[in-house]
Structures are given as C-alpha cells and as structure tokens.
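Hey all, sorry for the wall of text incoming. These are the two entities for the joint prediction.
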Amino acid sequence: VPKVEHLVYGDRKVFTVTAFNRGIGMHLGRLPPVWVEGEVTELRRNDAWANVFLTLKDPRTGACLSVTIGRRTYDRLALELAEGETVHVAGRAEIYELKGELGLRATTIERIGLGDQLVALERLKRKLAAEGLFRPERKRRLPRVPRAVGILTGADAAARGDLVATIAARFPAARIVVREARVQGKGAAGAIVSALAQLAAHPAVDVVVLARGGGSFEDLLPFSDESVVRAVAGSRVPVVSAVGHEQDTPLCDLAADVRAATPTAAGALVVPELRELEAALAGTRRRLGLAVRSLLERDRNRLARQGERLRTAPRLLLERRRAALDRTGARLQTLSPLATLNRGYAIVRAGGAALRAAAEVQPGDPIAVQLAAGSLDARVEEVQV
Amino acid sequence: VSESKSFEDLQRELEEIVTRLERGDVPVDDAIALFRRGEELYKECVARLQGAELQIEELLPGDPAT
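and here's what came out:
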C-alpha cells in the first residue's frame, strides 16, 4: 500500500490537500462496488469530453451524488436518459482530487424496472399469442360506412384533433362519439377498459379508435395491460389501434382488428371518402339501368323469334311428315319380295309352303311357281339332292 | 326500405340485384320488380350520405349506454 507523504512540523503530521484527497481516494478505492438508486438530474454529455456527468438525487430527502461514467461506456448503453428518470448505477466511490468532491465512478447504468417490465411484457405477449388473441383470422373487417365512430382518447388534444379532422374531411356526414379516459399512470388500464366497454355498448357505434399520441415506454404501458388487450380482442365492435408512434408496439396493437400508424391514418380507415362512395353508387345505378334494359331488349327479341316460329311451324310439320312417309315407303319397297321377283327370282311353293330344299318334294308332286308377273302350275320331273 | 339496415346492407343488396340482372336469368316480371327495388335502395343510400352534418357527442364515465 503506497503511503501518502506528509510534512512534519515538530510533533505535528501535516498533509497537503492533494495528499489528503489522494489518501481518502485510496481508502474509498478499497470499498466494494455498489448499486445506487436515484433520479437523474443535471445530465451533461459532450462529444468532446471523455466522461458523462450527472447527478443522482434521492427524491425523498433531496440528497445528491455526483456520478461520472466514461462517455463511450455511456453511449454504448444507448439509454437516452431523460431528467427525472429513476436509474440504478453500479460503481465505486471516488474522490475528485482537484475539488475534494465525493462521487460515484459508474461502470453501468440501468433504467430501473424497465428490464423487468420488458421481460413481463414479453411473457404476457407470448401467453396471449398462445391463446390465439393475435391470430389474423380473428381480425374483423371494418364497416365501410359506420353509423357512428367511437373515439377513446386521453386529454390528448392533438391525437383527437387529427382524428376528428380527418374523419370530417373524408365523410362530412359522420357521427362521432368521444369518450375521454385516463390513459396513463395509475388506474389507466381500468379506465381504458371501462371506456371501451361504454363505447362498444353505444347503440350506434360500429367501430372504435384508440387514439393516443406518442409517449414514453411507461406512458404507453396501460395499452399493453392484460385487461386492456383482452378487452380490445373481445370487443363487440372492431377496434382500430392508433397508439403511440410508428416504432411503438403496445400489445393492444396486436389484439386490435387494424393497427394505424397515426390518428390521421386511423381516420382514413374508419370512414370512406364521400366522393368516391357517391361515384361508386352512381356507377352501380348505371349498371342497374343497363342491365334491366338489356334484359327487356332480349325478351322482346325472344318474343319476335317465337312469333316467327309460330307462323312457320305448321308448314314445317307437314313437310317433315311427308318426308318421313317417303322414307317408310322406300323401306317397305326394299323389304317386299316383289322387288326380288322383279330381278328375275321366283318363289316355288308345294302345298302352299315355300320350298327351300329339293328333298322336300318327290318326282310327280305338283308345285306352284310365282313370278313377278303371274304364276305357273307345274309338276316335278326329277329331284337332285 | 328498412330503417334498421346499415348502409352496407343496403349497398350489398343493391349490388346483388345488379349482378342478378346482369347475369340475365331473371323472368321479366321479376326483373322489373328488382329494378324498382334497386332504384329504391340507391335513393336510400344517397339520402343517407347527404343532408346529415358532422355530429360529435361526448360520453362521460357515468353515462348510461343509451
């Protein structure tokens, strides 16, 4: 252990200020590293400095502690600390020799609770996802023309103003039902759930927009509360979530039927553009007229064709009958034995039956020979079998 | 035209009528009845879009669901 030099005046040991501070510093350096909790005040950071300085304050007593942390170390933490935030700082006590001031040499800084909150949030997200709350097939289509749009908002004039202005510009005949609720801090989750239930129970409300401007992670936490997420997923009417900024994803965004990046975008989702709707309606009506006209036209043509067929039908029928008769006659002709006799054949009969074999008769038997014209009575002279 | 039907219900019915007429397999008497119904639906849709003004209503925590 290095000794601190001191002067001697007679029997008095005297330290220079520098030596005293250094001596204290050496003692402090032997203390173990500790975690200190406090609120951030007087945060000073400059690209040209090797260290970042801040003061930790105990909110109950006002006691203060200077904290120094290497600038690169601080930047790597990417905390973007704001004044008033509560943090945990790990480090060792040190003394600033030049000023004799006690401070804390920090090795790391953590935003208090945030780590735990993130873990809890992730756990809740996984649990609700496993239950199927965020499944795409659960998402409902928004009504094209809602009878009334419900708006759930905090005392956040900007978000509400943007939303109402967008709705009014697109659809001047819109009906809007606003329900303000406490959307951050203690009791916010319960307030949001009951406000949502009240809006959904309104007989004219066909869709609800959650309109909440940007805010800190903690400010937006109620919109990730399990009760709020479940209320959004189970809402009677579809819900559009317009909470926080683009980069924020509160869990209610996942449970909502549609997520809107901004209140303005939400406005465009919940009501149609009146002029487009009117144009579409006019188009449909035109088609209605055209369709019925062409149907009547077709019917008239069919009627005309039927009249024509009615007039020509009897003649056609007669012609067809005659042709059929002719065909039958021709067939009859070919089957008649007379046609065969005409070609020089004869039919020989013995005792009335036609002869097919010579052995059927004996010499001397009488036979009749039928020719195409007339017949002969004859007698068998000889039989050759 | 029923008051309780939503704008979308009316619009959907109108579209179905037009599609049926366009398909053409409709007897003439039915076609004329369908056309009349279509015109009625169109007029109701237009009426619902016009005339009304922006209406903003504030709900308070204790308000009963009217």
